[in-house]
Amino acid sequence: MFLVRPAGAPARETGPDVDISKAVWLDLINPTPDEIARAEKALGTHVPRRDELEEIESSSRHHEEDGVLYLSTPLVRREEDTAFSLPIGFVLTDHRLVTVRYADYYGFDIVGRRQAERDPAKGDPSANELLVEIIEEVINRLADILEGLGRALDAISRRVFRADHPRDPARAGEMLRETLRRLGHAGDLASMTRDSLLGLDRILIYIGDRTEKDPQALKTRIKVAGRDIASLNDFDAQTVNKVQFLLDATLGFISIEQNDGMKVLTVVSAIGILPTLIAGIYGMNFHDMPELSWKYGYPYGLTLMALSVILPLFWFWRRGWFGAR
């Protein structure tokens, strides 16, 4: 989709009847090769393809050609219980901003609505102002994601460390497996958010060196956005540490559950060995066994087997392996 976003008017898809010569913001959303070619023809400059936006080298993400600034960064998007990261690109000239993205992002939509509500008599903001405004809204959205992630981790923490863990081993195991899945999702989301913040920070640094002619208010907004990113990076680092802590704690509880299972197997094995040994000894039926013709031999054997079960159970109970002392 190739949209034109003029001031004071709703966004319109480009066509033969749409004049883009005076538009400051052109928005390419999941563009086709034909739409990219039309954008290049209208702009007279190169528009990066998706494979170019996915490059990870700094020289590929931030560079200047013939006075045109090319910027790109991965940007995380969260949808219900899933999250993914897709590249976005900015082509910045002295008088025009071109955005290239492969998903709808809330921050872009907010700035688009503001653009449609502007007073046409005041004209479009500058390309730099639009870019900074988009970055500010994206930062706000990333802050919302991190806030939601923090609340989710608090809920996981209460669930992991609550006193009333399920007594049923099957339920406890399922709860711990679900916790691991949620922690894995949280770790992925925190990692993608950090990549997005890092990319935006580099973009701000890069455009901050080109704002000599911009108003002081815009320079101040860039500095404030940079400080916001720094604070979100700190919060993200704290979130990653909390994910790791909860992951270690969950794995510790899983080890405890496994140890409890091994204790049960140990108790069952221990109480079964001695009765089997006694039954095996008195089941050999040798001719010279003293107890073979003894009147009380059978109850004696049963008593020995009963004691061989009761005494180990008592010892395990004293050790606290099961039950309450």
How would you characterize the overall build of this protein?
- Strands 2-1-3-7-6-5-4 form a 7-stranded mixed β-sheet, sandwiched between helices.
- The protein has 325 residues and is an alpha+beta fold.
- Among the domains are: 117 residues, 2-Layer Sandwich (Beta Polymerase, domain 2); 60 residues, Methane Monooxygenase Hydroxylase, Chain G, domain 1 (Up-down Bundle), CATH 1.20.58.340.
- It is 60% helix and 13% strand.
- The radius of gyration is 34 Å and the shape is rod-shaped.
- It contains 8 helices and 7 strands, in the order βββαααββββααααα.
- A hairpin with a 2-residue loop joins strand 5 and strand 6.
- It starts with a strand and ends in a 7-residue tail after the last helix.
Tell me briefly what this model is.
By secondary structure, this protein is an alpha+beta fold. The protein has helices at 33-43, 50-53, 58-61, 106-117, 127-161, 169-208, 216-281, 297-318; strands at 2-4, 12-13, 25-29, 62-65, 68-79, 82-92, 97-101. The longest helix is centred in the C-terminal third of the chain and has 66 residues, at 216-281.
Q: How would you characterize the largest beta sheet? A: 7 strands, mixed
CATH topology of the domain at 1-117: Beta Polymerase, domain 2
CATH superfamily of the domain at 1-117: CorA soluble domain-like
Secondary-structure element string: EEEHHHEEEEHHHHH
| C-alpha termini separation | 71 Å
Mean pLDDT: 83
Number of helices: 8
Q: Please report the total strand number as a whole number.
A: 7
Q: Which descriptor suits the 3D outline? A: rod-shaped
CATH class of the domain at 1-117, anyone?
A: Alpha Beta
Helix content: 55-70%
